[in-house]
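Quick start: what a row looks like.
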Amino acid sequence: MLSTYSSPFVLSSSCCSPPHPFLLAPAYSPPRPLPAIPDPDEIDDLALFRRATLAADAGSGGGDGGAVAASLRRRPAAQPKVAFLFLTNSDLSFAPLWERFFRGHERLFNVYVHADPSSRLLLAPTPSFRRRFIPAKATQRASPTLISAARRLLAAALLDDPANAFFALVSQHCVPLRPFPSLYRALLSDPPAAAGRRRHHRSFIEILSGEPGLWDRYVARGDAVMLPEVPFHRFRVGSQFFVLARRHAVLVVRDRRLWKKFRLPCLRSMKDSCYPEEHYFPTLLDMQDPQGCTRYTLTRVNWTDSVGGHPHTYRPWEISGDLIHELRRSNSTYSYMFARKFSPDCLDPLLAIADSVIFRD
């Protein structure tokens, strides 16, 4: 005979009734996601991206360009230009080195900077960076906010100058490895188009599949959350830093279908597998135009002793001509043009070898 016992979880309909299983079980707690992108930020971005898409479709600089482009200088279409998109949350410590890189090529490039609003930039920007900051929103690791920031930069560049043909995303820790003409030639050296086809510039973006841990990255937002838009066999990974051809920049800014998946926050329990900015761009371009991408990045990164998802950070005592030559080498047809990650105090030793090594082929 079952004994009775006093408990607030026992049903009162019968003194001998067993405890109700649902009342004894612990309350179910659904997995907690990381913070999502605020709705006002998303609404602002959609309006910006719509203007940029319309401007690109019209083949113009976008009329007044809205608030984002209001302070950016305008030029008539000319030779193809490279838009350098700096994504930063700290000082642009290597601006003097980039000035050396840009010197004499002012008609072939534009600079755009997205600086996290919480960052305090203590160093006055050098001429190429002055008044080149776009309205920015907060960014953080393990968050699609880094995708949004890159898309804002692309949109601002599309609105600002119709001559922007290539869009190079770099960080404050990136430095150039070769002179500007070397980069320009590499970007323009597309293979001849097939008979009857228009010649298109290609994008330099790393696109990888079958990488270790890819499944954990795919389910970082939850099981089956990416379906049906992004089945696992179409999910890709690659470097956050790329050089996109103009048509691909427009494709990214226009996208809504994949973005509605990648904008979802990761689960807190999967934070260590959450790198949306390394997945969205390679997945989107591999699904939309795989033949138009080199599948290769122009930015060299040293992952041999990474810590907490951060690559090796070069220090002043490591800077030498031999290091620059080593960082340029690749297994691809193209040499690396940029490298990261360098500590801010590397500026002086880098400037010391700028003319004799970095900007000499």
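That is the whole record. Residues 1-18, 60-71 have pLDDT under 50 and may be disordered. The longest helix spans residues 39-58.
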